[in-house]
Fold Cytochrome bc1 complex Rieske iron-sulfur subunit.
Amino acid sequence: MSNTDKKYTTQELNAMSNEELARLGTELDDVTVAYRKERFPLDNDPAEKRAVRTVGFWFALGGIMALACIIIYIAWPWEYKYLGQDGLWVYSLYTPLVGLTLGLSVLSLGFGAVEFVKRFIPEEVAVQRRHDGPSDEVDRKTIVALLNDSWETSTLGRRKVLMGIMGGSAVLAGIAMFVPLGGMIKNPWKKGPLGIQGDGTLWTSGWTLFDHGEKLYLGRDTGAIAEEHDGHMSTQGVTRLVRMRPEDMQAGGMETVYPLPVHYVNDGDSYDPKLDVYEEQMHSIHGPRNPVMLIRLRSADAARAVQRAGQEAFHYGDYYAYSKICTHIGCPTSLYEQQTNRILCPCHQSQFDALQYGKPVFGPAARALPQLPITVDDEGYLVAAGNFIEPVGPAFWERRS
Ligand code: FES
């Protein structure tokens, strides 16, 4: 009877050595080892030392690159620098260096693993016939023995230094891959100074400046960019945000507007070709909770508009201003359909009714778009008449609706 037909008892299996179990496993799996050769059959083979150095080099390089990636990610100057600002060059290296070191780390570990297999695992040609069905106990036992055998023949067990390098590098590379998640850890209650993008908390925006006595125009984005003067690109005299008057919009139209404080204004009678407020205006545009949809309803529609209790005076005639940040998960609700007076968020198809204080009427959003109180000043410009009375964006338990 061949070994493959015999039924082994637990006692018999426990009595077998690892080598015997490995051999038995090979037979049971219908594996025929056609060729097998140890890489270094003789002790003190100089080629073995070279192989250790090569594999050690790749793993060490992988570990060093992973460590460099972690250090760069944490310590390199990463805060945005605009054109012409000191430190732009150093800042612009941040992303390439993080990518380069992480990529080199993974690549080096890959080379190391390939070199290790090529130089230490015995050369072997084995053929296995396929069989169906689950494995029985003897198979499970013998596969463990085979794995043990692979470990023994790989000689890794006695190469403590190489093991240390490989293990350390793998751990560092693993950390380097997860370190970027650290950028997502943020204290939502941490306050900074109040500016055009709010004070850093999620319930403030540029419009919050109104509560601190700032007059805020509704600024329309012109899309203007830096201009060339005397061979240099300059933003002097370039106006990105301009004030709006009601007559600048047609009935049934929608415009995205941003908070424009008085000292950022550079248009109309106040235009000064030497003034450079471009960067400040861009900060307003980049404020994550600043964009507001200014909608001019058609007169017949405006007559049917329903005001929310407490917000009766928030609109100016036919003009309504709603936060552009969807109350579902914060996409820009960019589409306004004048026939139905619906505002559509393209992310998950939530729809809000512009005739009913931005109430959600379709889709996953459950809360109305916050409405910004607006009016017109003495010079005829559209201005904010107050701050939002509820937080902008999604998922605030404190909201009334
Ligand atoms: S973010 Fe607007 S519907 Fe999901």
